[in-house]
Amino acid sequence: MNDTQWLVESTALVKRYGRVEALRGVDLRLGAGQIVGLVGPNGSGKSTFLKVVAGLLHPDGGSVKVRGRSPGLETKRWVAFQPEIDHLYRWMTVQQAMELQASVVGDWDARRAAELLEFLNLHQQRRTPVRNLSRGMRARLKLAMTLSRNAPIVLLDEPLSGIDPPSRGRIIRALIGQFRTDEQVVVLATHEVAETESTFDRVVFLERGTVKIDEDAQELRERYGKSIQAIMEEVYA
């Protein structure tokens, strides 16, 4: 794949919060056709990397390119970002939250949105205010809002956070079912590796803001002879 084909490319990326370097020279190239597991303990730089790609934070060193351009207003139309924090307006109903998202993005797929609401068991909650939803339902709503876009770059920050175990399999199936292999990259930042690693085509381990491992997921399992979860436990022991 040549340089013009990378959807996301970071080179010697640095991001600081005061004196703390959250990212320290991160080099990553992400192309279409992969679900990438971005894993590591809290404080490893996962969320910061996603926010820089999404254009919510500016690099303090190095560079990031999104389809060959620096993150900004123009690149936001190519990036669907689901933050870990609860960013929903609590006074809105589920339907109003979906309609607001549809009105501010240019790639909304109404048919997919309806299918996701039903698959994620939110279709009967359309008139329910967000403030009356459980934490797990709010997490499912955020995922539906993100996956209803046709963006080539999908960034999910801890999408299973707060979701009850019985619902997690449904979330993962929704993610796989909506993935468009020929035109899209999904970056899934998580420490819930045991439940999500079956989706990974590639896995990137971050540690203190640096890339520790970047490898094909199956090749990594074969090299270590164990699961990604077990490898993670060994690497970060």
Distance between the termini: 35 Å
User: Average pLDDT value?
Assistant: 91
Main pleated-sheet profile: 6 strands, mixed
Structure annotation, total helices: 8
| Tally of distinct domains | 1
- The H/E string reads EEEHEEHHHEHEHEEHH
Shape: globular
What is the class in the CATH system?
Answer: Alpha Beta
Low-confidence stretches: none
Task: Kindly name the structural category.
Answer: alpha/beta
Topology (SSEs and partners):
Elements: E1 8-17, E2 20-30, E3 34-39, H1 46-53, E4 61-66, E5 79-82, H2 94-104, H3 110-119, H4 135-147, E6 153-157, H5 165-178, E7 185-190, H6 193-196, E8 202-207, E9 210-216, H7 217-224, H8 228-235
Parallel strand pairs: 3-7, 3-8, 5-6, 6-7
Antiparallel strand pairs: 1-2, 1-4, 8-9
Helix pairs in contact: 3-4, 4-5
Please tell me about this protein's structure:
The chain is of the alpha/beta class. It has one domain (34-54, 78-235): 3-Layer(aba) Sandwich (Rossmann fold), CATH 3.40.50.300. It is 32% helix and 26% strand. The chain contains 8 helices and 9 strands. It has helices spanning 46-53, 94-104, 110-119, 135-147, 165-178, 193-196, 217-224, 228-235; strands at 8-17, 20-30, 34-39, 61-66, 79-82, 153-157, 185-190, 202-207, 210-216. The strands form 2 sheets. Strands 5-6-7-3-8-9 form a 6-stranded mixed sheet, with helices on both faces. A 3-stranded antiparallel sheet has the order 2-1-4, with helices on one face. The longest helix has 14 residues, at 165-178. The radius of gyration is 17 Å and the shape is globular. The mean pLDDT is 91.
